[in-house]
Write a structure and sequence with these properties.
14 strands, about 240 residues, 8-stranded antiparallel beta sheet, 6-stranded antiparallel beta sheet, single chain, Jelly Rolls
Length: about 240
C-alpha cells in the first residue's frame, strides 16, 4: 500500500522519561486541572505524524464533526498496529499518569486502581469488551472548531489524556486555542485557555478531577474543546489510554 514504508521516528524511552518532570505535572494537575509538557516531540516528528493523515489505511475510522454536532473539522482514529512513535509515547506516559490517577481515585474514595503498565490496562479494556484503539489525529481548517466534550468510550475509563499540538501557531494557523472548562458546584463554569506550541502537550482530565472543599474532596466535572480556527490548518495528536467498544 502506498506510504506504508514511511514510519515516524520512534520516540526513544529515555527521551520521554527524563524530560517530563512528574512532580511538576502532578502539582499542576492538582492545582489547576491541567499540566503542560513543553517540547514533548520535535518538529520533524510533528511533520511526520501530520503526513500520516492522508494515509487512510493507517486508520480505522474517520469522523466529520459537523455530521454529529461535534463542531467543525474532522479526525481519524488510528488502527492497530499504531505508529511506533504513538505507541512509544503512550507506553512512556502511562505509568506516571496511572500513579496520579490512582491517587485521585483514593482521594475520591474510589477503590479502582490502574495497573502499572499500559499493556496490562489494555488487557482490562479487552476483558470489558473495549477493543478499538483510541489514539487519533485531528485536522482543523479556517472556521473549524471543537465543541466542549468528554472522551468516554465505554464503562472502563482512564481519567487522564494528552493532546500534542503538531502545527506551529501563528505560522501554520491562527486561532484554535485549546480550552478547558470546570463545572463548579452551585457556581458558573470557569474556562481556561491553554497556550500550546508545536510539539508541546497538555495533560488534562477526561471527565472529572478531585478538588479540595470544606468537607473534603469532591468531583469537579471537566470538558475540553478547541476555539475557532481563524486561518490555516491545525493538526493535533490525541492520546487517550482506554480503548473503545
Amino acid at each position: 500500500m502506498p506510504g506504508l514504508d514511511r514510519e515516524p521516528t520512534t520516540v526513544a524511552p529515555s527521551t520521554v522519561s527524563k524530560n517530563l518532570g512528574w512532580a511538576q505535572i502532578t502539582l499542576d494537575l492538582d492545582n489547576q486541572g491541567f499540566a503542560l509538557i513543553d517540547r514533548l516531540i520535535d518538529p520533524e516528528e510533528c511533520r511526520s505524524l501530520v503526513a500520516l493523515y492522508s494515509e487512510s489505511e493507517r486508520f480505522r475510522s474517520r469522523v466529520i464533526m459537523a455530521s454529529h454536532g461535534y463542531g467543525r473539522g474532522e479526525y481519524q482514529y488510528f488502527a492497530d498496529p499504531l505508529p511506533n512513535s504513538v505507541t512509544a509515547l503512550r507506553e512512556q506516559l502511562y505509568p506516571g499518569l496511572a500513579a496520579i490517577a490512582n491517587r485521585w481515585n483514593e482521594r475520591l474514595g474510589n477503590s479502582e486502581r490502574f495497573p502499572d503498565s499500559l499493556n496490562d490496562f489494555r488487557a482490562q479494556c479487552r476483558a470489558a469488551g473495549q477493543t478499538k484503539p483510541t489514539p487519533l489525529l485531528l485536522k482543523y481548517e479556517a472556521g473549524d472548531y471543537n465543541c466542549l466534550h468528554q472522551d468516554l468510550y465505554g464503562d472502563l475509563v482512564f481519567p487522564l489524556q494528552v493532546a500534542v499540538l503538531l502545527s506551529q501557531p501563528d505560522q501554520d494557523f491562527t486561532g484554535g486555542e485549546f480550552v478547558l472548562t470546570e463545572q463548579r458546584p452551585r457556581m458558573q463554569s470557569r474556562a481556561e485557555v491553554v497556550p500550546l506550541r508545536q510539539g508541546s502537550a497538555v495533560v488534562f482530565p477526561v471527565h472529572h478531577r478531585p478538588v479540595k472543599g470544606t468537607r473534603g474532596d469532591y468531583r469537579m466535572n471537566m470538558r475540553h474543546g478547541v476555539s475557532r480556527i481563524r486561518s490555516g490548518e491545525r493538526y493535533t495528536l490525541g492520546l487517550i489510554f482506554h480503548d473503545a467498544r
